[in-house]
Write a structure and sequence with these properties.
GO terms for molecular function: GTP binding; GTPase activity; magnesium ion binding. It is built from nine helices and 22 strands. The protein is an alpha/beta fold. It folds into three domains: 210 residues, GTP1/OBG domain (Spo0b-associated Gtp-binding Protein, Chain: A, Distorted Sandwich), CATH 2.70.210.12; 93 residues, no CATH class; 184 residues, 3-Layer(aba) Sandwich (Rossmann fold), CATH 3.40.50. It has a six-stranded mixed sheet with strand order 18-19-17-20-21-22, sandwiched between helices. A five-stranded mixed sheet has the order 7-3-16-9-14, with no helix packed on it. A four-stranded mixed sheet has the order 8-6-15-10, with no helix packed on it. The chain starts with 17 loop residues before the first strand and ends in a 16-residue tail after the last helix. The chain binds guanosine-5'-triphosphate (GTP). Guanosine-5'-triphosphate binds next to helix 5.
Amino acid sequence: MKSPLYSDLLYESMCESVSIYSESDLGLSLERKMIDKFRLWAKGGDGGNGCVSFHRSRHNQHGRPDGGNGGRGGDVILECSPAVWDFSSLQHHVNAKRGGHGASKNKIGTRGSDKVVQVPIGTVIQLVEGEIPSPVGKPSSKSLDPWELPGSLDADLSISDQQSMTINPSMAEDAETKCLPYGEKHTLNEFPTCKERQGLAVKAEASRKATVHTGAFLSCNKESTCEWEDVESDSALSEEDWEDEVEVMEEIKYNIAELTEQGQQLTVACGGEGGLGSVAFPKFSKSKSPRQGIQNVNYLCSQESDGDDDQSSLTSGSTGSETVLILELKSIADVGLVGFPNAGKSTLLGAISRAKPTVGHYAFTTLRPSIGNLNYDDLSITVADIPGLIKGAHENRGLGHAFLRHIERTMVLAYVVDLAAALDGRKGIPPWEQLKDLILELEYYREGLSARPSLVVANKIDEAGAEGVYEELKRRVQDVPIFPVCAVLEEGIPELKDGLKMLVSGGQVSRLTVDGILLD
Ligand SMILES: Nc1nc2c(ncn2[C@@H]2O[C@H](COP(=O)(O)OP(=O)(O)OP(=O)(O)O)[C@@H](O)[C@H]2O)c(=O)[nH]1
Protein backbone atom coordinates (compact mmCIF):
# COMPACT_ATOMS: atom_id res chain seq x y z
CA MET A 1 0.00 0.00 0.00
CA LYS A 2 1.11 3.51 -0.65
CA SER A 3 2.39 5.52 2.25
CA PRO A 4 -0.46 7.38 3.92
CA LEU A 5 1.63 10.51 4.30
CA TYR A 6 -0.52 12.25 1.80
CA SER A 7 -1.23 15.07 4.24
CA ASP A 8 2.18 16.42 3.22
CA LEU A 9 0.98 17.03 -0.26
CA LEU A 10 1.02 20.50 -1.64
CA TYR A 11 -2.35 22.01 -2.19
CA GLU A 12 -1.10 24.78 -4.43
CA SER A 13 -3.84 24.35 -6.86
CA MET A 14 -7.33 25.32 -6.00
CA CYS A 15 -8.63 22.99 -8.66
CA GLU A 16 -7.41 19.94 -6.82
CA SER A 17 -10.25 17.85 -5.52
CA VAL A 18 -9.74 15.29 -2.85
CA SER A 19 -11.78 12.23 -2.03
CA ILE A 20 -11.24 10.64 1.33
CA TYR A 21 -11.41 6.89 1.87
CA SER A 22 -11.34 5.69 5.42
CA GLU A 23 -8.94 2.88 6.05
CA SER A 24 -10.28 1.90 9.43
CA ASP A 25 -11.33 -1.36 7.82
CA LEU A 26 -7.71 -2.15 7.28
CA GLY A 27 -6.80 -1.49 10.85
CA LEU A 28 -5.38 1.95 10.10
CA SER A 29 -6.61 5.04 11.79
CA LEU A 30 -5.31 7.29 9.04
CA GLU A 31 -7.33 8.44 6.11
CA ARG A 32 -6.07 8.26 2.58
CA LYS A 33 -6.60 11.31 0.47
CA MET A 34 -7.14 10.46 -3.10
CA ILE A 35 -6.35 13.36 -5.40
CA ASP A 36 -8.52 13.06 -8.45
CA LYS A 37 -8.12 16.51 -9.94
CA PHE A 38 -4.83 18.21 -10.48
CA ARG A 39 -3.38 21.30 -12.14
CA LEU A 40 -0.16 20.72 -14.02
CA TRP A 41 2.26 23.27 -15.47
CA ALA A 42 4.41 21.57 -18.07
CA LYS A 43 7.38 23.13 -19.84
CA GLY A 44 9.41 21.55 -22.60
CA GLY A 45 13.17 21.92 -22.36
CA ASP A 46 14.75 24.84 -24.23
CA GLY A 47 16.84 24.05 -27.26
CA GLY A 48 20.61 24.27 -26.85
CA ASN A 49 22.47 27.10 -28.56
CA GLY A 50 24.30 26.58 -31.82
CA CYS A 51 28.03 27.14 -31.79
CA VAL A 52 29.69 29.74 -34.00
CA SER A 53 33.17 28.52 -34.65
CA PHE A 54 35.61 28.28 -37.58
CA HIS A 55 38.35 25.83 -38.14
CA ARG A 56 41.55 27.08 -39.66
CA SER A 57 44.16 24.78 -41.02
CA ARG A 58 47.29 25.00 -43.13
CA HIS A 59 45.21 24.25 -46.19
CA ASN A 60 42.44 26.64 -45.31
CA GLN A 61 43.77 29.85 -43.87
CA HIS A 62 40.37 31.57 -44.00
CA GLY A 63 38.76 28.93 -41.88
CA ARG A 64 35.67 26.88 -42.49
CA PRO A 65 32.63 26.90 -40.22
CA ASP A 66 32.60 23.94 -37.84
CA GLY A 67 30.22 25.03 -35.07
CA GLY A 68 27.57 22.36 -34.40
CA ASN A 69 23.86 22.93 -33.92
CA GLY A 70 22.33 23.00 -30.48
CA GLY A 71 20.37 19.93 -29.29
CA ARG A 72 16.59 19.84 -29.09
CA GLY A 73 15.01 20.27 -25.68
CA GLY A 74 13.19 17.35 -24.06
CA ASP A 75 9.42 16.90 -24.13
CA VAL A 76 7.05 16.51 -21.22
CA ILE A 77 5.08 13.33 -21.80
CA LEU A 78 2.13 11.98 -19.87
CA GLU A 79 2.07 8.20 -19.76
CA CYS A 80 -0.84 6.04 -18.71
CA SER A 81 0.22 3.57 -16.06
CA PRO A 82 -1.64 1.10 -13.84
CA ALA A 83 1.06 1.60 -11.22
CA VAL A 84 -0.47 4.90 -10.09
CA TRP A 85 -4.07 5.29 -9.10
CA ASP A 86 -4.39 8.99 -8.38
CA PHE A 87 -2.40 12.21 -8.77
CA SER A 88 -0.93 12.30 -5.29
CA SER A 89 2.57 11.47 -6.49
CA LEU A 90 2.66 14.21 -9.13
CA GLN A 91 4.36 17.58 -8.92
CA HIS A 92 2.56 20.66 -10.13
CA HIS A 93 5.51 22.03 -12.12
CA VAL A 94 7.23 19.70 -14.51
CA ASN A 95 10.16 20.71 -16.72
CA ALA A 96 11.95 18.64 -19.29
CA LYS A 97 15.71 19.04 -19.69
CA ARG A 98 17.20 21.60 -22.06
CA GLY A 99 19.20 20.52 -25.08
CA GLY A 100 22.99 20.64 -24.98
CA HIS A 101 24.85 23.45 -26.73
CA GLY A 102 26.62 22.78 -29.99
CA ALA A 103 30.40 22.81 -29.97
CA SER A 104 33.27 23.23 -32.38
CA LYS A 105 34.40 20.32 -34.55
CA ASN A 106 30.80 19.94 -35.75
CA LYS A 107 29.64 18.63 -32.40
CA ILE A 108 25.88 18.70 -32.17
CA GLY A 109 24.41 19.38 -28.75
CA THR A 110 22.79 16.44 -26.97
CA ARG A 111 19.02 16.16 -26.98
CA GLY A 112 17.50 17.15 -23.67
CA SER A 113 15.96 14.17 -21.91
CA ASP A 114 12.18 13.87 -21.85
CA LYS A 115 10.24 14.07 -18.63
CA VAL A 116 7.74 11.24 -18.46
CA VAL A 117 4.97 11.74 -15.93
CA GLN A 118 2.93 8.70 -15.04
CA VAL A 119 -0.79 9.24 -14.69
CA PRO A 120 -3.51 6.76 -13.75
CA ILE A 121 -5.65 4.92 -16.26
CA GLY A 122 -8.76 6.97 -16.93
CA THR A 123 -7.06 10.37 -16.82
CA VAL A 124 -8.87 13.10 -18.73
CA ILE A 125 -6.61 15.89 -19.91
CA GLN A 126 -8.02 19.38 -20.17
CA LEU A 127 -6.17 22.28 -21.68
CA VAL A 128 -6.17 25.62 -19.89
CA GLU A 129 -3.31 27.36 -21.64
CA GLY A 130 -0.87 26.48 -24.39
CA GLU A 131 -0.82 24.36 -27.49
CA ILE A 132 -2.92 21.27 -28.05
CA PRO A 133 -0.80 18.28 -27.03
CA SER A 134 0.05 15.56 -29.50
CA PRO A 135 -0.10 11.81 -28.99
CA VAL A 136 3.06 9.72 -29.07
CA GLY A 137 3.39 6.06 -30.01
CA LYS A 138 0.25 4.51 -28.62
CA PRO A 139 -2.33 7.27 -28.84
CA SER A 140 -5.79 7.33 -27.35
CA SER A 141 -8.06 6.97 -30.34
CA LYS A 142 -11.69 7.44 -31.23
CA SER A 143 -12.00 3.79 -32.09
CA LEU A 144 -11.37 2.57 -28.56
CA ASP A 145 -14.08 0.67 -26.82
CA PRO A 146 -16.55 3.06 -25.17
CA TRP A 147 -16.05 1.24 -21.89
CA GLU A 148 -12.36 1.88 -22.15
CA LEU A 149 -13.11 5.54 -22.67
CA PRO A 150 -15.06 6.78 -19.69
CA GLY A 151 -15.95 10.07 -21.34
CA SER A 152 -15.72 8.79 -24.85
CA LEU A 153 -14.04 10.75 -27.59
CA ASP A 154 -16.59 9.31 -29.96
CA ALA A 155 -18.80 12.24 -30.69
CA ASP A 156 -21.76 10.10 -31.72
CA LEU A 157 -22.08 8.22 -28.51
CA SER A 158 -25.17 8.93 -26.55
CA ILE A 159 -24.04 10.60 -23.41
CA SER A 160 -26.90 9.04 -21.54
CA ASP A 161 -24.83 5.88 -21.71
CA GLN A 162 -21.69 7.63 -20.64
CA GLN A 163 -21.16 9.65 -17.57
CA SER A 164 -19.57 12.54 -19.35
CA MET A 165 -18.44 13.61 -22.78
CA THR A 166 -15.09 14.63 -24.02
CA ILE A 167 -14.42 17.26 -26.62
CA ASN A 168 -11.62 16.47 -28.93
CA PRO A 169 -9.83 19.41 -30.52
CA SER A 170 -11.47 19.18 -33.91
CA MET A 171 -14.93 19.15 -32.39
CA ALA A 172 -14.09 21.86 -29.96
CA GLU A 173 -13.09 24.25 -32.68
CA ASP A 174 -16.52 24.42 -34.17
CA ALA A 175 -18.53 23.68 -31.07
CA GLU A 176 -20.75 26.64 -30.44
CA THR A 177 -21.46 27.44 -26.88
CA LYS A 178 -25.20 27.26 -26.77
CA CYS A 179 -27.14 28.82 -23.96
CA LEU A 180 -30.64 28.09 -22.88
CA PRO A 181 -33.31 30.78 -22.61
CA TYR A 182 -33.39 32.31 -19.16
CA GLY A 183 -35.32 30.24 -16.68
CA GLU A 184 -35.57 27.11 -18.84
CA LYS A 185 -34.33 23.80 -17.60
CA HIS A 186 -33.10 20.90 -19.69
CA THR A 187 -31.09 17.77 -19.37
CA LEU A 188 -28.17 17.31 -21.72
CA ASN A 189 -29.92 14.31 -23.20
CA GLU A 190 -32.63 16.56 -24.61
CA PHE A 191 -30.23 18.04 -27.10
CA PRO A 192 -30.42 15.90 -30.17
CA THR A 193 -27.32 16.79 -32.07
CA CYS A 194 -23.90 16.10 -30.92
CA LYS A 195 -22.81 19.62 -31.75
CA GLU A 196 -25.44 21.11 -29.49
CA ARG A 197 -24.36 18.82 -26.74
CA GLN A 198 -20.74 19.63 -27.33
CA GLY A 199 -21.50 23.32 -27.06
CA LEU A 200 -23.48 22.83 -23.89
CA ALA A 201 -20.91 20.52 -22.52
CA VAL A 202 -18.24 23.17 -22.88
CA LYS A 203 -20.20 25.36 -20.52
CA ALA A 204 -21.52 22.57 -18.43
CA GLU A 205 -18.05 21.18 -17.90
CA ALA A 206 -17.08 24.62 -16.72
CA SER A 207 -19.55 24.58 -13.90
CA ARG A 208 -19.87 20.95 -13.06
CA LYS A 209 -18.89 19.52 -9.75
CA ALA A 210 -17.03 16.29 -9.30
CA THR A 211 -20.15 14.18 -9.12
CA VAL A 212 -22.63 15.94 -11.37
CA HIS A 213 -24.42 13.51 -13.65
CA THR A 214 -25.59 13.76 -17.20
CA GLY A 215 -29.19 13.80 -16.04
CA ALA A 216 -28.56 16.91 -14.00
CA PHE A 217 -30.40 20.02 -15.05
CA LEU A 218 -28.80 22.78 -16.98
CA SER A 219 -30.38 26.16 -16.71
CA CYS A 220 -29.55 29.62 -17.90
CA ASN A 221 -29.11 32.64 -15.68
CA LYS A 222 -29.58 36.29 -16.65
CA GLU A 223 -25.99 36.59 -17.85
CA SER A 224 -26.76 33.79 -20.29
CA THR A 225 -24.41 31.30 -18.78
CA CYS A 226 -25.44 27.70 -18.42
CA GLU A 227 -25.13 26.14 -15.02
CA TRP A 228 -25.86 22.85 -13.42
CA GLU A 229 -28.78 23.07 -11.08
CA ASP A 230 -28.44 20.07 -8.84
CA VAL A 231 -25.72 21.62 -6.73
CA GLU A 232 -27.55 20.94 -3.47
CA SER A 233 -27.33 17.23 -4.03
CA ASP A 234 -23.55 17.35 -3.92
CA SER A 235 -21.92 18.07 -0.65
CA ALA A 236 -18.34 17.44 -1.73
CA LEU A 237 -17.24 21.08 -1.83
CA SER A 238 -17.89 24.08 0.37
CA GLU A 239 -19.40 27.23 -1.13
CA GLU A 240 -15.98 28.89 -1.29
CA ASP A 241 -14.29 25.85 -2.85
CA TRP A 242 -17.13 25.60 -5.28
CA GLU A 243 -16.61 29.17 -6.47
CA ASP A 244 -12.90 28.53 -6.86
CA GLU A 245 -13.65 25.36 -8.71
CA VAL A 246 -16.00 27.10 -11.12
CA GLU A 247 -13.46 29.85 -11.70
CA VAL A 248 -10.77 27.33 -12.53
CA MET A 249 -12.99 25.15 -14.66
CA GLU A 250 -14.13 28.12 -16.68
CA GLU A 251 -10.57 28.57 -17.86
CA ILE A 252 -10.60 25.18 -19.53
CA LYS A 253 -10.42 25.47 -23.29
CA TYR A 254 -10.85 21.88 -24.37
CA ASN A 255 -10.96 18.39 -23.12
CA ILE A 256 -8.00 17.11 -25.06
CA ALA A 257 -7.83 13.41 -24.55
CA GLU A 258 -8.25 10.54 -22.18
CA LEU A 259 -5.55 8.07 -21.39
CA THR A 260 -7.26 4.76 -20.89
CA GLU A 261 -4.76 2.09 -21.84
CA GLN A 262 -1.53 1.16 -20.24
CA GLY A 263 1.36 2.70 -22.16
CA GLN A 264 -0.58 5.42 -23.95
CA GLN A 265 1.47 8.58 -24.15
CA LEU A 266 0.71 12.19 -24.85
CA THR A 267 3.28 14.93 -25.35
CA VAL A 268 1.95 17.90 -23.45
CA ALA A 269 4.91 20.27 -23.82
CA CYS A 270 7.44 20.12 -26.64
CA GLY A 271 11.11 20.82 -26.38
CA GLY A 272 12.48 23.84 -28.24
CA GLU A 273 14.57 23.38 -31.37
CA GLY A 274 18.31 23.71 -31.04
CA GLY A 275 19.96 26.85 -32.45
CA LEU A 276 21.97 26.70 -35.65
CA GLY A 277 25.70 26.34 -35.52
CA SER A 278 28.02 28.10 -37.96
CA VAL A 279 28.20 24.91 -40.00
CA ALA A 280 24.71 25.76 -41.18
CA PHE A 281 26.07 28.86 -42.97
CA PRO A 282 28.49 27.45 -45.55
CA LYS A 283 28.32 30.43 -47.87
CA PHE A 284 30.41 32.43 -45.45
CA SER A 285 33.14 29.88 -45.37
CA LYS A 286 35.36 31.96 -47.61
CA SER A 287 35.71 34.75 -45.10
CA LYS A 288 39.05 36.37 -44.87
CA SER A 289 39.35 35.52 -41.25
CA PRO A 290 37.41 33.54 -38.69
CA ARG A 291 36.43 36.75 -36.94
CA GLN A 292 34.89 38.05 -40.13
CA GLY A 293 33.15 34.72 -40.55
CA ILE A 294 31.54 35.14 -37.16
CA GLN A 295 30.43 38.63 -38.10
CA ASN A 296 28.99 37.28 -41.33
CA VAL A 297 27.06 34.60 -39.52
CA ASN A 298 25.67 37.18 -37.16
CA TYR A 299 24.78 39.39 -40.12
CA LEU A 300 22.97 36.51 -41.81
CA CYS A 301 21.11 35.75 -38.61
CA SER A 302 19.91 39.31 -38.33
CA GLN A 303 18.76 39.27 -41.97
CA GLU A 304 16.92 35.99 -41.67
CA SER A 305 15.26 36.95 -38.46
CA ASP A 306 13.50 39.91 -40.05
CA GLY A 307 15.69 42.57 -38.64
CA ASP A 308 15.39 41.28 -35.14
CA ASP A 309 17.71 43.25 -32.90
CA ASP A 310 19.00 40.09 -31.38
CA GLN A 311 21.57 39.01 -33.92
CA SER A 312 22.01 35.63 -32.35
CA SER A 313 18.36 34.64 -32.63
CA LEU A 314 19.10 31.88 -35.13
CA THR A 315 21.98 30.49 -33.19
CA SER A 316 20.09 30.50 -29.88
CA GLY A 317 17.95 27.50 -29.13
CA SER A 318 14.23 28.20 -29.07
CA THR A 319 12.22 28.08 -25.90
CA GLY A 320 10.30 24.93 -25.07
CA SER A 321 6.52 25.18 -25.18
CA GLU A 322 4.50 25.65 -22.04
CA THR A 323 1.07 24.32 -21.19
CA VAL A 324 -1.23 24.48 -18.26
CA LEU A 325 -3.44 21.46 -17.92
CA ILE A 326 -6.06 20.16 -15.59
CA LEU A 327 -5.91 16.42 -15.12
CA GLU A 328 -9.03 14.73 -13.94
CA LEU A 329 -9.64 11.16 -13.00
CA LYS A 330 -13.02 10.05 -14.26
CA SER A 331 -14.97 7.30 -12.66
CA ILE A 332 -16.61 4.96 -15.13
CA ALA A 333 -19.75 4.54 -13.09
CA ASP A 334 -21.24 5.55 -9.78
CA VAL A 335 -22.09 2.00 -8.80
CA GLY A 336 -20.24 -1.21 -9.57
CA LEU A 337 -22.17 -4.51 -9.38
CA VAL A 338 -19.73 -7.01 -7.94
CA GLY A 339 -20.49 -10.72 -7.63
CA PHE A 340 -19.53 -14.23 -8.59
CA PRO A 341 -20.50 -15.54 -12.02
CA ASN A 342 -24.19 -16.43 -12.32
CA ALA A 343 -25.20 -14.33 -9.30
CA GLY A 344 -27.58 -12.45 -11.58
CA LYS A 345 -25.77 -9.13 -12.05
CA SER A 346 -26.72 -8.72 -15.70
CA THR A 347 -30.34 -9.60 -15.00
CA LEU A 348 -30.30 -7.09 -12.16
CA LEU A 349 -28.83 -4.34 -14.32
CA GLY A 350 -31.58 -4.93 -16.86
CA ALA A 351 -34.19 -4.76 -14.07
CA ILE A 352 -33.00 -1.51 -12.54
CA SER A 353 -32.15 0.30 -15.77
CA ARG A 354 -33.01 0.15 -19.42
CA ALA A 355 -29.70 -1.52 -20.23
CA LYS A 356 -29.89 -4.83 -22.09
CA PRO A 357 -26.90 -6.87 -20.98
CA THR A 358 -26.55 -10.51 -22.08
CA VAL A 359 -28.04 -12.95 -19.58
CA GLY A 360 -27.19 -16.65 -19.53
CA HIS A 361 -27.36 -19.57 -17.13
CA TYR A 362 -23.66 -20.24 -17.60
CA ALA A 363 -20.80 -18.47 -15.90
CA PHE A 364 -18.99 -15.59 -17.62
CA THR A 365 -21.91 -14.58 -19.79
CA THR A 366 -20.69 -11.05 -19.24
CA LEU A 367 -17.29 -10.67 -20.83
CA ARG A 368 -17.45 -6.93 -21.32
CA PRO A 369 -18.91 -4.68 -18.65
CA SER A 370 -22.11 -2.85 -19.49
CA ILE A 371 -23.37 0.39 -18.06
CA GLY A 372 -26.94 1.28 -17.26
CA ASN A 373 -28.49 4.58 -16.28
CA LEU A 374 -30.81 4.90 -13.31
CA ASN A 375 -32.92 8.00 -13.60
CA TYR A 376 -34.58 9.56 -10.60
CA ASP A 377 -36.58 12.79 -10.56
CA ASP A 378 -33.63 14.81 -9.38
CA LEU A 379 -30.65 12.61 -10.14
CA SER A 380 -29.24 10.14 -12.60
CA ILE A 381 -26.69 7.55 -11.62
CA THR A 382 -24.69 5.08 -13.68
CA VAL A 383 -24.38 1.43 -12.77
CA ALA A 384 -21.74 -0.91 -14.20
CA ASP A 385 -22.23 -4.64 -14.48
CA ILE A 386 -18.73 -5.90 -13.94
CA PRO A 387 -17.82 -9.40 -15.22
CA GLY A 388 -18.05 -12.19 -12.67
CA LEU A 389 -15.33 -12.44 -10.13
CA ILE A 390 -13.79 -15.78 -9.22
CA LYS A 391 -11.42 -16.88 -6.51
CA GLY A 392 -7.89 -16.07 -7.61
CA ALA A 393 -8.98 -13.18 -9.82
CA HIS A 394 -6.32 -11.05 -8.15
CA GLU A 395 -3.77 -13.43 -9.68
CA ASN A 396 -5.40 -12.71 -13.02
CA ARG A 397 -7.47 -15.90 -13.08
CA GLY A 398 -10.73 -15.73 -15.00
CA LEU A 399 -11.14 -12.20 -16.23
CA GLY A 400 -8.87 -11.19 -13.40
CA HIS A 401 -7.30 -7.81 -13.58
CA ALA A 402 -9.43 -6.64 -16.48
CA PHE A 403 -12.49 -6.22 -14.30
CA LEU A 404 -10.71 -5.49 -11.04
CA ARG A 405 -9.33 -2.42 -12.77
CA HIS A 406 -12.87 -1.35 -13.61
CA ILE A 407 -13.94 -1.67 -9.98
CA GLU A 408 -11.33 0.93 -9.08
CA ARG A 409 -13.27 3.43 -11.11
CA THR A 410 -16.60 3.09 -9.34
CA MET A 411 -17.72 5.17 -6.42
CA VAL A 412 -19.80 2.67 -4.54
CA LEU A 413 -20.12 -1.11 -4.59
CA ALA A 414 -23.23 -3.26 -4.74
CA TYR A 415 -22.29 -6.84 -3.86
CA VAL A 416 -24.67 -9.20 -5.65
CA VAL A 417 -24.99 -12.60 -4.00
CA ASP A 418 -26.92 -15.68 -5.06
CA LEU A 419 -29.13 -16.79 -2.18
CA ALA A 420 -29.76 -20.15 -3.85
CA ALA A 421 -26.14 -21.01 -4.66
CA ALA A 422 -25.78 -23.60 -1.89
CA LEU A 423 -29.38 -24.74 -1.73
CA ASP A 424 -30.56 -28.29 -2.57
CA GLY A 425 -27.09 -29.73 -2.73
CA ARG A 426 -25.87 -27.23 -5.31
CA LYS A 427 -22.15 -26.77 -5.49
CA GLY A 428 -22.13 -23.05 -4.74
CA ILE A 429 -21.20 -21.38 -1.48
CA PRO A 430 -23.51 -19.59 0.96
CA PRO A 431 -23.93 -15.81 0.44
CA TRP A 432 -21.92 -14.78 3.51
CA GLU A 433 -18.99 -16.86 2.21
CA GLN A 434 -19.48 -15.24 -1.20
CA LEU A 435 -19.21 -11.83 0.42
CA LYS A 436 -16.06 -12.75 2.29
CA ASP A 437 -14.41 -14.09 -0.87
CA LEU A 438 -15.43 -11.06 -2.87
CA ILE A 439 -13.95 -8.66 -0.33
CA LEU A 440 -10.74 -10.67 -0.09
CA GLU A 441 -10.32 -10.74 -3.86
CA LEU A 442 -10.67 -6.97 -4.01
CA GLU A 443 -8.27 -6.48 -1.13
CA TYR A 444 -5.68 -8.92 -2.52
CA TYR A 445 -5.70 -7.02 -5.77
CA ARG A 446 -5.34 -3.67 -4.07
CA GLU A 447 -5.61 -2.91 -0.41
CA GLY A 448 -8.42 -0.50 0.25
CA LEU A 449 -10.32 -1.37 -2.92
CA SER A 450 -13.30 -2.63 -0.91
CA ALA A 451 -13.20 0.37 1.41
CA ARG A 452 -15.96 2.33 -0.23
CA PRO A 453 -19.67 2.73 0.46
CA SER A 454 -21.43 -0.56 -0.15
CA LEU A 455 -24.67 -2.47 0.05
CA VAL A 456 -25.65 -6.08 -0.54
CA VAL A 457 -28.16 -7.32 -3.08
CA ALA A 458 -29.53 -10.72 -2.07
CA ASN A 459 -30.72 -12.07 -5.40
CA LYS A 460 -32.92 -15.05 -6.34
CA ILE A 461 -35.21 -14.63 -3.34
CA ASP A 462 -37.87 -16.42 -5.42
CA GLU A 463 -36.06 -19.77 -5.20
CA ALA A 464 -37.40 -22.35 -2.74
CA GLY A 465 -35.58 -22.03 0.59
CA ALA A 466 -34.05 -18.65 -0.30
CA GLU A 467 -36.10 -16.82 2.37
CA GLY A 468 -34.39 -18.83 5.11
CA VAL A 469 -30.95 -18.11 3.65
CA TYR A 470 -31.82 -14.42 3.51
CA GLU A 471 -32.75 -14.43 7.22
CA GLU A 472 -29.45 -16.11 8.01
CA LEU A 473 -27.59 -13.57 5.87
CA LYS A 474 -29.22 -10.71 7.80
CA ARG A 475 -28.09 -12.28 11.04
CA ARG A 476 -24.52 -12.66 9.81
CA VAL A 477 -24.07 -9.33 8.04
CA GLN A 478 -25.26 -6.30 9.94
CA ASP A 479 -23.00 -3.42 8.91
CA VAL A 480 -24.54 -2.78 5.51
CA PRO A 481 -28.09 -2.70 4.18
CA ILE A 482 -29.25 -5.89 2.45
CA PHE A 483 -31.88 -5.76 -0.27
CA PRO A 484 -33.70 -8.99 -1.08
CA VAL A 485 -34.60 -9.02 -4.77
CA CYS A 486 -35.77 -11.27 -7.51
CA ALA A 487 -34.09 -9.75 -10.55
CA VAL A 488 -36.00 -11.87 -13.09
CA LEU A 489 -39.39 -10.87 -11.73
CA GLU A 490 -38.21 -7.38 -10.84
CA GLU A 491 -39.27 -7.75 -7.23
CA GLY A 492 -37.64 -5.56 -4.59
CA ILE A 493 -36.25 -3.25 -7.30
CA PRO A 494 -37.81 0.09 -6.13
CA GLU A 495 -36.37 -0.40 -2.63
CA LEU A 496 -32.97 -1.24 -4.09
CA LYS A 497 -33.05 1.84 -6.30
CA ASP A 498 -33.78 4.00 -3.24
CA GLY A 499 -30.87 2.37 -1.43
CA LEU A 500 -28.49 3.02 -4.33
CA LYS A 501 -29.56 6.63 -4.55
CA MET A 502 -28.97 7.09 -0.83
CA LEU A 503 -25.52 5.54 -1.09
CA VAL A 504 -24.42 7.52 -4.14
CA SER A 505 -25.66 10.84 -2.83
CA GLY A 506 -23.76 10.25 0.40
CA GLY A 507 -26.87 10.02 2.57
CA GLN A 508 -25.61 6.77 3.96
CA VAL A 509 -22.07 5.57 4.40
CA SER A 510 -21.83 1.87 5.08
CA ARG A 511 -18.84 -0.27 4.27
CA LEU A 512 -18.62 -4.01 4.15
CA THR A 513 -15.60 -5.63 5.76
CA VAL A 514 -14.62 -9.22 6.42
CA ASP A 515 -14.72 -8.44 10.15
CA GLY A 516 -18.32 -7.35 9.74
CA ILE A 517 -19.36 -10.82 8.55
CA LEU A 518 -20.15 -13.58 11.02
CA LEU A 519 -18.47 -16.66 9.55
CA ASP A 520 -18.47 -20.28 10.76
N1 LIG B 1 -34.48 -17.81 -10.09
C1 LIG B 1 -33.84 -16.73 -10.41
N2 LIG B 1 -32.89 -16.78 -11.38
C2 LIG B 1 -32.23 -15.65 -11.69
C3 LIG B 1 -32.48 -14.41 -11.04
N3 LIG B 1 -31.68 -13.49 -11.56
C4 LIG B 1 -30.94 -14.10 -12.49
N4 LIG B 1 -31.27 -15.39 -12.59
C5 LIG B 1 -30.69 -16.37 -13.49
O1 LIG B 1 -29.32 -16.58 -13.15
C6 LIG B 1 -28.57 -16.87 -14.34
C7 LIG B 1 -27.38 -15.95 -14.41
O2 LIG B 1 -27.83 -14.63 -14.61
P1 LIG B 1 -26.89 -13.47 -15.15
O3 LIG B 1 -27.64 -12.22 -15.00
O4 LIG B 1 -26.33 -13.79 -16.48
O5 LIG B 1 -25.71 -13.58 -14.10
P2 LIG B 1 -24.34 -12.77 -14.04
O6 LIG B 1 -24.02 -12.58 -12.60
O7 LIG B 1 -24.43 -11.55 -14.88
O8 LIG B 1 -23.35 -13.82 -14.67
P3 LIG B 1 -21.93 -13.56 -15.37
O9 LIG B 1 -22.19 -12.90 -16.65
O10 LIG B 1 -21.37 -14.93 -15.53
O11 LIG B 1 -21.11 -12.73 -14.44
C8 LIG B 1 -29.54 -16.72 -15.50
O12 LIG B 1 -30.00 -18.00 -15.88
C9 LIG B 1 -30.68 -15.89 -14.92
O13 LIG B 1 -31.90 -16.15 -15.55
C10 LIG B 1 -33.51 -14.40 -10.01
O14 LIG B 1 -33.82 -13.39 -9.41
N5 LIG B 1 -34.13 -15.58 -9.76
